[in-house]
Amino acid sequence: MFISNINALTTTLEELIINAKNILLLTHKNPDGDGLATCLALKTIINGIYKKDTAILLEKEAPDFLDFLNVQIHTTADKPQQDFDLIIITDCHEFTRAYHDESLLINAKKVIFIDHHEIVKNAIKSNFLYYIDPHAVSTGVILHDVYKHFLQRLSKEDSNYYAQCIYTTILNDTDNFINSNVDAKVFSVCHDLMKYELNPQQVVTDFLLKKPPQYYQFIGNVLSTIEIHNDKRVLFMHSSLQMLERLGLDQDASSKMMRWVKGVKDIDIQVYFQQVEEKLFRISLRSDKYEVNTLASFFGGGGHKKAAGCEIKGTLTEAKSMILEQIRHLS
C-alpha cells in the first residue's frame, strides 16, 4: 500500500513505532551516505523520542566513510535470531535489494519502505507499506520533513548528531551541491539543520575529503583508465581488484567515484565499471541528457533518471560491450 503524503507518513510512522516492541532498520545493499545516514538519524529519533532500542542491520561491517558518525557502534552485521514487529527500509523500495535474507521481511509484522528513487512497478508488494517521493533530494530530507517539529524533544547532543546525519544525506545525493536536484527546498532544510549547531565545513571534510594519500592515488589510477566512445559522447572508466589490493584499500574507496567526472565537457554519459569480483562489475551511470535508470533497469538495476546503477557478470570487455549496446538504444 502506498502512503499518499508526508502527513500520512508522519502519522503512520508514529503509530507503527509506538506499537512495535522491536524495530529493525535496513537500507539497500552496498549502503551509501544517504540510506545509511538516514538509518542513523532515524535510530537517534526512535531511541531519543520513543525510548526504544533499535538495530541497524548491514550485510557486512559498516563502511568507514561514515566513521565520523560513529557508524560502527550504531550498526551490526550479526544476523538477528528473532522476528521483528517493524522493519523500516530507507533509500530503497525493491524487496530484493534490502537484505540478502528475505525471510526477515517476510516474517516481520509490518514493513515500510521510505525512498526517493523512481518507482520500479514490479518491485511493489501488496503486503508492504511504501512512501516514495522521487522529487525528494534524499531519503534523509524525507525523514526531516517527518521529524523537524519533533527535534526539540531530543537532547542537544542527539539533535546535533541528527543534523550531521541529514546533512550527510544531502551531500551524498547532491554530490556536494553540484547536481541538478539542488533546489530551494535543499537550502531550506540546511537552514533548519544549522539551528542544531551543525558545522557544514566539518561534515564535508569528514565525509568527502579526509582520506588517506592512497585513496587519492587510487583516484588517479581510475581516472587514467578513461576511454571515450560513441563519437566522443560516452566516457568509460574502471577500477580493478588489483588496483585496490596494490594500495591496501577496500571497495569503500570506490564510493563517490563519479564526482570526479561530473560535468566533463561534451560528454553525454559517464560510466564507471567497478570490479567487485573476478567476473562481476558494479556499474554506475550518470547523464544530464538521458534517463540512465532505463539503461540500468535492463540489467536488473535502477535508480534516478540521471544517476543509476546495476551489476553485470562477465569480464570488463564483456561488460563494456553490453553497456555500449544498450546505450545505442537510448533516446
Walkthrough of the structure:
The chain is an alpha/beta fold and 331 residues long. It has two domains: 6-208, inorganic pyrophosphatase (n-terminal core) (Alpha-Beta Complex); 213-327, Diaminopimelate Epimerase, Chain A, domain 1. The chain is 39% helix and 18% strand. The protein has 13 helices and eleven strands. It has helices at residues 6-19, 35-49, 71-74, 95-98, 103-107, 139-147, 156-174, 184-194, 200-209, 213-223, 241-247, 292-298, 316-327; strands spanning 23-27, 54-56, 86-90, 110-115, 129-132, 227-229, 234-239, 269-277, 280-287, 302-303, 307-313. α2 packs parallel to α6 and α7 packs antiparallel against α8. The longest helix has 19 residues, at 156-174. The protein is globular. The two termini are 33 Å apart. The relative contact order is 0.10. The mean pLDDT is 93.
Annotate the secondary structure layout:
Layout: H1 6-19, E1 23-27, H2 35-49, E2 54-56, H3 71-74, E3 86-90, H4 95-98, H5 103-107, E4 110-115, E5 129-132, H6 139-147, H7 156-174, H8 184-194, H9 200-209, H10 213-223, E6 227-229, E7 234-239, H11 241-247, E8 269-277, E9 280-287, H12 292-298, E10 302-303, E11 307-313, H13 316-327
Parallel strand pairs: 1-2, 1-3, 3-4, 4-5, 7-8
Antiparallel strand pairs: 6-7, 8-9, 9-11, 10-11
Helix pairs in contact: 1-6, 2-6, 2-7, 6-7, 7-8, 7-9
